[in-house]
Design a protein that fits this description.
Layout (H helix, E strand, L loop, with lengths): L6 H11 L3 E7 L5 E7 L7 H4 L1 E4 L13 E6 L5 E2 L7 E9 L11 H15 L4 E13 L1 E7 L2 E7 L35 H13 L4 E6 L6 E6 L2 E2 H21 L3 E3 L13 E9 L2 E2 L11 H21 L5 H4 L12 E3 L6 E3 L11 E3 L8 H17 L30 H10 L2 H4 L6 H20 L4 H7 L3
Parallel strand pairs: 1-6, 16-17
Antiparallel strand pairs: 1-2, 3-4, 4-6, 5-6, 7-11, 7-12, 7-13, 7-14, 8-9, 10-11, 14-15, 14-18, 17-18
Length: 474
């Protein structure tokens, strides 16, 4: 797909593709795409300046009802044709503006990402932050759940799930994937090869470069598809498209996909390792002669990530379920340390290539359950704080951190153990996010209040099935 830059080019694309509708998409604060759709005749060049009205009070994290009138302003560079709609539909990602002042809306997560990219240039440190997430996901054949005053349960199923080896199907064709045995087996054990290829083909038709596709570690349909790195804002847009394509391609195949970090007990959850690098004037800034082939700039960036990780977890791991995956010694790196090659460290320095252009670092604790614009912006702001204040990351850990004794791990900080703890950390440590007016105090306060009221407090009031197993007979 050729690059679209102007409203006129968007209208020409819509005409060439026979579009009959325009889908206007924007993101709410928790991180879910919202949309409203208008007939194609409403899209003229003026629409990109005038915008379209909507009720902001009905969107999570947006305006209160007494100031609810808002505008969505289409970004012409985001134009793509929807690959799933029955009728040809043009999709435009939109920004949020105030209808009276015409100013960008401070709580719009995409605007925050734009400000983060602009602040990076303002510092003079670099002009581009490249982001490369690896968003894992599960594909199930069936999912059922309920939470009512007198009952609570969930059940997921997959034809390849280890628990189905004894299922009474006639015939049961076997080849179930064992728990933690899903990394790289070929068909027929890997039942999702064709679906992943469908997803890859759609992503490439949308203009995104796919790098790899494979089954992941867990039984029951865990997958990973990686795309080439992009600048921060573009990757935020791409990750929203990625999740949309994965979910709808699975639905079209009669399956269901989820990016929930920990949908099953006793097997690996789904993370989102985030590769990061800074560039200036077309040159990489993270390559050097320091540890792991890194520059001092990169090491200070790591220092910022490690220092602020407990706070940014509230944005990079923003759900209660996120902390079912962040369990010490089990699967995800919870120890705030860095290392070359070592996947048990929360910050890893990949060593696949010695090219300076490939030099980057990988934050391994995030997941994709939240808002990518906020998560990527928070990671960048933490790293920049490390560079600006020359934060020493300390000594690297080249040992298996999962195997170390409590005495050996003494003094090594960890990520928070719950969402409530992460929100407390963010409440205490967020000044670095306010630099350059990237995040505002209002955004931080709204995020914390929303999460505490709608997730932490709600969860605290509900008994779980495990509590019956543990306590019913007491």
């Amino acid at each position: 797909m050729s690059e679209i830059k102007t409203p006129r080019e968007v209208i020409e694309l819509a005409r060439a593709k026979g579009a009959v509708m325009v889908d206007l998409r924007f993101i709410d604060m928790p991180g879910v795409w919202q949309h409203t759709t208008v007939p194609i005749h409403r899209l003229d060049e003026a629409a990109f300046e005038d915008g379209f009205g909507f009720d902001g009070s009905s969107i999570r994290g947006y305006q209160p009802i007494n100031a609810s009138d808002m505008l969505i302003l289409p970004d012409p560079t985001s134009a793509k044709m929807d690959p799933f709609t029955q009728h040809p539909t043009l999709v435009l990602i939109c920004d949020i503006v105030d209808p009276i002042t015409r100013e960008s809306y401070a709580r719009d997560p995409r605007y925050i990402a734009k400000k983060a990219a602009a602040y990076l240039k303002q510092t003079g440190i670099a002009d581009t932050a490249y982001i490369g997430p690896e968003a894992e996901f599960f594909v199930f054949d069936d999912v059922r759940y309920a939470s009512t005053p007198n009952a609570a349960f969930y059940e997921v199923d997959s034809v390849e799930g280890a628990w189905n080896s004894g299922r009474g199907d006639r015939p049961n064709l076997g080849y179930k994937i064992p728990h933690k045995g899903g990394y790289f087996p070929v068909m027929p054990s890997d039942t999702l090869m064709d679906l992943r290829t469908d997803i890859c083909q759609i992503l490439m038709e949308l203009g995104y470069e796919v790098e790899v596709s494979h089954h992941e570690v867990a039984t029951g349909g865990q997958c990973e598809i990686d795309t080439k790195f992009l600048d921060l804002l573009s990757m935020g847009d791409q990750l929203m498209w990625f999740k949309y394509v994965v979910k709808n391609a699975a639905r079209r195949a009669g399956k269901v996909a989820t990016f929930m970090p920990k949908p099953m007990y006793d097997d690996n959850g789904s993370g989102m390792h985030v590769h990061q690098s800074l560039w200036k004037d077309g040159k990489p800034l993270f390559a050097g002669d320091g540890y792991g082939g890194l520059s001092q700039t990169a090491l200070h960036y790591i220092g910022g990530l490690l220092k602020h990780a407990p706070a940014i977890c509230a944005l990079t791991n923003p759900t209660i379920n996120s902390y079912r995956r962040l369990v010490p010694g089990f699967e995800a790196p919870v120890n705030l340390a860095y290392s070359s090659r070592n996947r048990s460290a929360s910050i890893r320095i990949p060593t696949y290539s010695q090219s300076p252009k490939a030099k980057r670092l990988e934050a391994r604790f995030p997941d994709s359950s939240g808002n990518p614009y906020l998560a990527f912006s928070a990671l960048l702001m933490a790293g920049l704080d490390g560079i600006q204040n020359q934060i020493d990351p300390g000594d690297p850990f080249d040992k298996d951190l999962y195997a170390l004794s409590p005495e050996e791990l003494e003094g090594v900080p960890t990520v928070p153990g719950t969402l409530a703890e992460a929100l407390d950390c963010l409440e205490r440590d967020h000044e670095f996010l306010l630099q350059g007016d990237v995040f505002t105090k209002d955004v931080i306060e709204e995020w914390i209040a929303y999460k505490r009221e709608n997730e932490v407090a709600v969860f605290a009031q509900r008994p779980t099935p495990l509590e019956y197993e543990l306590y019913f007979a007491t």
